[in-house]
Every structure is written in C-alpha cells, then in structure tokens.
Amino acid sequence: MLRAIKTTAAFAAVAAIGLFTMPAAEAGGRPGPKPTIVLVHGAFADSSGFNAVAKRLLAGGYPVVSAPNPLRGLTHDATQVRALLDSISGPIVLVGHSYGGAVISTAATGNANVKALVYLAAFVPETGESAEQLAGKFPGSTVGTSLKPVPLPDGQVDLYINPAVFHPNFAGDLPARDAALYAIAQRPATGAALGEPASAPQAWHDIPSYDLISGADRIIPPAAQEFMAKRAGAKIQVVRGASHLVFVSQPDTTVAFIERAVRETAR
C-alpha cells in the first residue's frame, strides 16, 4: 500500500510539470487539456529567467516545462529539445528566447503536437542562416563588443556577455541589481553554436508563429527581429522600450502573448 501511494504521488509530481498530460476532452463536452507550454532559454541565460512567466502560466492552469538548452551547437541543441518534445503527449506551444528561437525552429520540424511557435526577442533563421549572421544583418547590435571569450581545452571557445556591460547591453530595462544577478547566472554559448547555420527545414514554414519584438533591444536589433518575423508570416507585437530580456521585464505582456497563441491555434 505504501509503495502504491508513493508511486501515485510520484506520477502526480511529474504530471504537474507537464511531462504527462491528462486525457483529451471528456464525453460531457468539457474542453480538453490546455497545451503544455515549453520554454527554451537562449544564450547567456538559463531557465531561471522564465520564473515569473512560468509562475503566471501555472496559475493559469497550464502544464509548463522549461527545456534545458545545452548551448553547444545548433543541431545538437535542437536534437536535445526535440527529444524532450517527443516525451510530451498532447498539444504543445513552444516558446524560444533569442538563440532559443533558432533551436525551436529546428526542434519542432515534423512534430504534429506543436501547435504554435512563440518567439521572444528571438532569432528566426531560414535554412543556411546562423544567429551570428542575423545579429549583424542590421545595424545596432552590441553583441560583438559585449562578448567575453573563454578558451576551452578542445580548441573551442565559450562566450559570455561581459558582466561590465550586461546591464546596458542585455538587460537595460531591469534594475541594475537584478541585471547583476542575471549576469552572474548566465550560461555561455560556444562560438560554434552561434555561428552554425540552420541545416534542417525550419518549422515556421508549417507551424503558426508569433513574435514578441523587444523595441529597445541592443543584442538583436528590432529591425532584424521585424525582418525575421515578417518573413515567417508571424503575428507580431512590439514592446516599446523593452530590452533583450523582455520576458523578464514584461512577464504579464509575455504571458498574454503566449495565451494569444494558445487561443488562436487551439484545435
């Protein structure tokens, strides 16, 4: 009996974070389960940046999963996220920030459960394009002068945002004390990851996309974000004055935008 209770409790804990979803609509006509919201962080960040967004989504009854993004290489990272998506039953709304946008664009290809792609101040590459290339497509990015390289034993290099410029260049609309904490918690991306072109067909060709553009972004210029969003045929919302960490500074706006994607793609 004790073992059965423990097993049931363990299953409930897993279900609560969205790795399992409850059965679809019941016979009485009640609506089916809400989609699982999968959050994919970008470079120079980690999943903790989504805490305020995840808290609001959970309060709204959504299963939420924050995917670990290895930041080692675009193909490698997309493969890791794709494996996580394959473990989730039922509809998914897939959300990517910055480099995470490039990852979800590849990871979702061919997955019929992914009903919408939501990009937050993100790269939305076409096959053959890299994050590095797109960041420099329009003037205004400070990413090249913000990077602090750390050589690795295998000859590769890890790239960080220099903490000295993290606040003005990456998180300008956050309080300085908060930006300092995000600078400490950032995870590096390899130079190879940022320079690797997308090689697979991009999911935004077949899956409805939504793009939240940060209007004062100093990492991916707003003009670059708009170019990629329009090319993808995305539904667009511009958050004026928002930094690259728009989902941190504007969690209510971000959640409302995700919920719009849920409503408009429900089927």
TrEMBL record:
<feature type="domain" description="AB hydrolase-1">
    <location>
        <begin position="37"/>
        <end position="256"/>
    </location>
</feature>
<keyword id="KW-0732">Signal</keyword>
<dbReference type="InterPro" id="IPR052897">
    <property type="entry name" value="Sec-Metab_Biosynth_Hydrolase"/>
</dbReference>
<dbReference type="InterPro" id="IPR029058">
    <property type="entry name" value="AB_hydrolase_fold"/>
</dbReference>
<dbReference type="GO" id="GO:0003824">
    <property type="term" value="F:catalytic activity"/>
</dbReference>
<protein>
    <submittedName>
        <fullName>Pimeloyl-ACP methyl ester carboxylesterase</fullName>
    </submittedName>
</protein>
<dbReference type="Pfam" id="PF12697">
    <property type="entry name" value="Abhydrolase_6"/>
</dbReference>
<feature type="signal peptide">
    <location>
        <begin position="1"/>
        <end position="27"/>
    </location>
</feature>
<dbReference type="InterPro" id="IPR000073">
    <property type="entry name" value="AB_hydrolase_1"/>
</dbReference>
